[in-house]
Amino acid sequence: MIRVRALLWLSFPLLLVACPTQNAATLTGLKTFDVGAGGVHKAGLLTYDPAKYGLPPTGGPHNDAWMLCGVYDKPVANEHAVHNLEHGTVWITYRQDLAPAEIDKLKSFVKGEEYTLLAPYPKTINAEAVPSLPSNIIVSAWSVQKGYDKADDEIKTFISRYANGPDSKAPERGSQCGGPYAVTIPDERAQ
Questions:
Q1: Domain limits of the chain?
Q2: Cα separation of 37 and 172, whole Å?
């Protein structure tokens, strides 16, 4: 028994080298934000300062309800999506004029991924203009995000690392991304 344990102990480092994980790739150019500890629920339309929370927001106060994770063809409410981030979701937003081929590629990245939310970012909310995304595509998790000009394969690495993954800093990581209380309709205030 002792020999078996010794053999396992000695061979463990070799197994780590021989079996690299999908998460081994390094993500560079990440923006991080001090968004607080989470758990701050507020009703109604919330305003997020892009300098503090990012654009779209990567955390902060949010509504009680979260979005049902998945793919949306219309914008979703920031207040619900931020709640998703608190649960460990990766939220991918894109400019509404993004080429359909790029949107299809983003859809392929999230297919089969439980903790992902994909939606265009609004141009207006309640008929008032909102700031434009700083890049064609923004990939966000709790307190972190990265912009992309196109649907880069690196986004899959971001998803594997942050969608309820090992690098997630989500305060309620692993909480529901669906269920009977999840919102399933896009933001009717947004265009």
A1: 26-162
A2: 10
Question: In sequence order, which residues have a C-beta less than 8 Å from that of residue 90 and are 6 or more positions away?
Answer: 113, 115, 116, 117, 139, 140, 141, 158, 159, 162, 163
Residue type, 18: A
Q: pLDDT tens across 133-154, in order? A: 999 999 999 999 999 999 999 9
Query: Tens of pLDDT along 74-119?
Result: 999 999 999 999 999 999 999 999 999 999 999 999 999 999 999 9
Architecture of domain 26-162: 3-Layer(aba) Sandwich (3.40)
* Cα–Cα dist 36/160, whole Å: 23
d(CA 98, CA 123): 13
The DSSP bridge pattern shows strands 124-125 and 128-129 to be antiparallel
Specify whether the CB–CB gap between 77 and 182 falls below 8 A: no
